[in-house]
Specification:
The relative contact order is 0.21. The protein has 1 helix and 5 strands. The chain has 86 residues and is mainly β. The strands form 2 sheets. It has a 3-stranded parallel sheet with strand order 2-4-5, with no helix packed on it. A two-stranded parallel ribbon has the order 1-3.
Length: 86
Amino acid sequence: MYGLEGNDRFVVSGKQNKKTPIYLISGKGDNTYEVSNGKNIRLYAYPDEKEKLKETGKVKKVLSDSENIHHYDYEKTRYSNFSFTP
């Protein structure tokens, strides 16, 4: 889940499927994080948010200034075909 520019609030709660990873990617702005169960969650944040991340528990934190990580490009993912199986 991308938090685009602005003040974003990430709230993760409930029972989690162990096989489904969750990626939280912060944008620029004043972001807040509320994570009740941090297993299998990766949080990509800017280094200046380090103090806010102390209360996120077992979340794997990756601090980076790289725009390649934080920039969301809606044209990047293109699907060449679509199939549906009932």
